[in-house]
Amino acid sequence: ITAAGPSAVNCANAKTGPSGAWGEAPVRDVMDIVWKALGLAGENARAAAALLGKPARFSRLPGIRSFRRPLDPLAPRTSFPVEILSRSVIEAASLAFWLTESGLSVRVRVARQIVYRMNGATRMEEALDSMGGPRPGEQRRDYGELADDVRQAAADLGLPLTRPGRQWDCDGQKYPGYLDRATSLSASFARTPKVPYQVYSGVAHAELWGLWRGYVQLPRNGHPHDRQQLTFKPLNMHSAVQALVRAITSAARRTAGY
Q: CA-CA distance, 78 to 89, in Å (whole number)?
């Protein structure tokens, strides 16, 4: 939190709710989420750097001239693994980007963290129920924050939390879908902001058009079961690395300004 930045202004808010003054706590909850999201993005960027045989320094990632292609059985044979890691970086970085958007009032920013938490708590409990509930000796809360906990947090702050349709709404703030969030982030560095996340989602979900990115057609005089083979396409790898680096740096830059 910078002394004269928006975060300091948010922390010094005079908001009150049924439980009393808000104080710094709900704002620091926002920053805790942002910190974790950027941590996840950073870890996946480090994993991409390791795959490429690079030092774990973001400043060294963008170039493709020095890509090392060692005869290592674990070295990537296609751009697939880096594209999937890039997608994950975009997802995590876009959460931080959304929560630290410039010009938001403290009420809107805190409402965003509430609706984010409620979306996650609901999904966690749905997954737990599909497993048949907690295992013997465990409680539901051992698996994560519960929806009732988030409802209580919203009520204590005096923020209305409803679900009029498929999306949760907290004081007018709805949790954006992954593509919407990714598009907002990618718009800060890409001319076609929907494309990076859409393309890498196609790879992650094994869509046929995504799989085509990593294969090449062999001559028809080959074995009938060897019609296609994995191929390394430097441009695909370069694009994935560029998207990864720009996503995490854009989110980090905005967060630093908050």
A: 19
Encoded tokens for 24: 């710094």
- What are the DSSP E strand ranges found in the chain? 16-17, 20-21, 161-162, 169-170, 173-174, 215-217, 228-230
Can you tell me which residue has the tokens 């963008």?
A: 62
Contact 241, 62 (CB under 8 A): yes
By CB neighbour count within 10 A (0-12 exposed, 13-18 middle, 19+ buried), where does 85 fall?
buried
For residue 69, give the 3-state DSSP assignment: coil
Report d(CA 184, CA 94) in Å as an integer. 8
Closest CA to 92 of 252, 253, 257: 252
Q: Pseudo-torsion of CA 165, 141, 144, 13, nearest 10°?
A: 80
Q: Residue 66 has which token pair?
A: 């020095």
What average pLDDT does range 36-64 have in this prediction?
Answer: 73
Q: Look at the alpha carbons of 76, 77, 81, 87 in this order and tell me if their dihedral is positive or negative.
A: positive
Confidence band, pLDDT 50/70/90 cuts, at residue 218 = confident
> Which of 249, 256, 240 minimizes the C-alpha distance to 49?
240
Please choose, from the candidates 63, 67, 46, the residue with its C-alpha nearest in 3D space to the C-alpha of residue 55.
46
Provide the pLDDT for residue 53.
75
Euclidean distance between CA atoms 7 and 27, whole angstroms: 8
Sheet hosting strand 173-174, strand order edge to edge = 161-162, 169-170, 173-174
**What phi and psi values does residue 4 have, to the nearest 5 degrees?**
-115, 10
- pLDDT at residue 69 in the model: 46
